[in-house]
């Protein structure tokens, strides 16, 4: 429990001490407010960021009688006795390095998606998790914990033969939704030059490793943009797609706009008995258009997803079906107003307390990079 050795004292309270690494946008808008609301389950005990101002700002937003400690050292946070769970919300380039420090300190680890940008870093996390005993890492795919998505996974099993599916994620700028979130986040630029240079260097290395070394794809402005956008935005959709209908066999079509630097992509995934149309993109329209729709012979199941940055927006499931008497029925089901991040963190708490393996493991997350590889190779050919 709590990632500690069996010989160490286990807290009597079920409240989990959380150390957050990375105090940027997602931490300020999502993690701190949600952990505050779940104060009966979690207590933020430590905060870490290379920006001292970001740490202080996030510290001021923690609703607790005792303010969390702060540091610019990931290692210090990971080795703090009051930290049971290390929540990693840094730039994805440093996910593997931060996760390894936490696992070496015998802590449980939550990593915001994407797990990493390369198979190399992903495999480092998988190996470290196994060395620590396994089931010590939880990857943050909040859409897969939305009540409607969980219901849809079960509902799709009743479809029978899947004939076709659509996966869509076209959104406006996140700043639009963040600006209406009521969280008033702030950005800071008090970064040390050495930290900025380290990020730039690691990002360049990741792109070269992922594209050239692992996939044999040339690094261009277009492939760089595509890899970064799809690994961050696309990992939401691809991960959910995998859980609801499994892994695709291949990519049989890809839009030519991917090679021109356009922020829109569309592809056709081949499954054994059907295909999936995939659309993803970012524009300047203030709307969030994300869904997964599965078509059978007499039933269609659709999951509709809203922005995660405005709290309490429900994910819904729409069922369209022909009944045995030949009549048509369309149902919209909203099981709860609890947002996916809150439901995900409740699942995190259950995982910490029970020690059971989560469904969103590092090995599970690796499959997203495999699908991204299919997409990149389809563009390159």
TrEMBL record:
Domain Gfo/Idh/MocA-like oxidoreductase N-terminal per the UniProt entry, residue ranges: 17-133
Q: Please name the source species.
A: Neohortaea acidophila
- Gene Ontology CC entries for this record: cytoplasm
Highest taxon in the source lineage: Eukaryota
GO MF terms held by the record:
nucleotide binding; oxidoreductase activity
Biological process (GO) annotations held by this record are: NADPH regeneration
What name has this protein been given in UniProt? Gfo/Idh/MocA-like oxidoreductase N-terminal domain-containing protein
> Which SUPFAM superfamilies does the annotation name?
NAD(P)-binding Rossmann-fold domains (SSF51735)
One Pfam family, short name:
GFO_IDH_MocA
